[in-house]
Amino acid sequence: MRVEREVWRGVPLLHVAPEKEWSEPLPTVVFFHGITSAKEHNLHYAYQLAEKGLRVLLPDALLHGERTENLTEMQLIVRFWEIILNSIQELDYINGIAQERKLVKGDIAIGGTSMGGITTLGALAAYPWIKAAAVMMGAGNYVELSKAQIVQFESRGFQLPFTDQQRKELFETLSKFDSIHNIEAFNQRPVFFWHGEQDTVVAFEPTFKLYNQLKEHYRDTPEHLYFMREREAGHAVTRQGMLAATDWLGKHLKT
After folding, report:
1. What is the largest distance, in Å, between two alpha-carbon atoms of the chain?
2. Tens of pLDDT, residues 41-77
3. Helices (H) and strands (E) in the chain, counts
4. Domains defined for the chain, CATH in brackets
5. CA–CA distance from 43 to each of 46, 157, 187 (Å)?
6. Which residues does 206 contact at the CB level (< 8 Å), separation at least 6?
């Protein structure tokens, strides 16, 4: 297995693939990390995927990893949606470069943990060329989640740097990537969800509700939708969840 640090159009990423097939077109996954994390922290996902013969690209999100500006966690949270929308835009660049270099066999898959799972669901709403996805403790209710975050901040006495007009514009933008508002965009593509029922960071119920709404749209392909719930788990993916997610991506990228 080979791991290379690269920079694609200003985006630092780790490029992981089987050594013997490094230069060949391979089924490819782009995997996003969580807030305050970095690309290196998801190398265990990349290892499992590369062992299955897949190529994996792990980008650093804006203000994270090699792109850090040493902001506090609160400063990062205030810019949460800017970071996510930027990652969705950069996914288009990453896919384009990978396709141009003939590194990809077919269409790419995506996945991510926490903020990366939220990014994954927004990207599914934006890009029909994504083949499959794994959402690890993510959420697709962008508008509802952003409103709840604002209420939480203000209830704790934080003054957010947004005018009423800016808030309105933010909600309008987020609605374009909101899973609830764009449920047809899933188009029965294979999607795996993992979520711990005790998660106090990204709530379990909204994501499980989304899954139940999606089931109606997957009537003809129920095998393309799976929700793995763990009753005692919180905001940390278990080994069983990680292995199930990588098995899912490997299976659906190779078919």
Report:
1. 56
2. 999 999 999 999 999 999 999 999 999 998 888 888 8
3. 8, 8
4. 2-253 (3.40.50.1820)
5. 5, 38, 30
6. 139, 140, 141, 144, 145
